[in-house]
Amino acid sequence: MADVIYLAEGPRVALRYISMRDFEELSGLHQESAQLLARWMPGGPLVAYEDFERYMTRFDGPVHEGFLICRRDTGAIVGRANVNNIIRGTHQSAMIGYSAYASTLGRGYMTEGLGLLVGHAFGEMGLHRLEANIQPDNAASLRLIKRVGFQREGYSPNFQFIDGAWRDHERWALTVEMTTA
Fold this sequence. Notes:
Layout (H helix, E strand, L loop, with lengths): L7 E2 L3 E5 L5 H10 L1 H5 L10 H9 L7 E7 L5 E11 L5 E8 L8 H14 L6 E6 L4 H10 L2 E12 L2 E11 H5 L1
């Protein structure tokens, strides 16, 4: 992938924008990880081209940005992350969402990749605050967000409709000041 432009690079992974040419690789990752993701992610897996195309339209405006976390040595996708519901003005805040895939779990790629995402959001994107909402039973995601430096702020009952039901979520946040302390 010589024509790929990375927005940020770490020792093992790099951050780049998602694009339509990522469909085949992401479709395969979503198929292999469908059972893993169903409990935690809104919407179904992105395995049909039409669904992926519809998903990509959300990044046409200024309130959502889509990213991929890729291995630096091979360019292979190891995770996906979004910066959603971007609010400018006096807030300069957004919510993040992310997913790992079954074949790349437990290697630290997402910790490194979300660190790159935070740096990009607070740097290039000019944001001040990021928020992540995680189901209380998603222990792996809670451990990940803690490793990246987010702090728990509260609890939101019936926060999001996922896998056929309204799910409670814990609210975690990180501000620029928390990364420089």
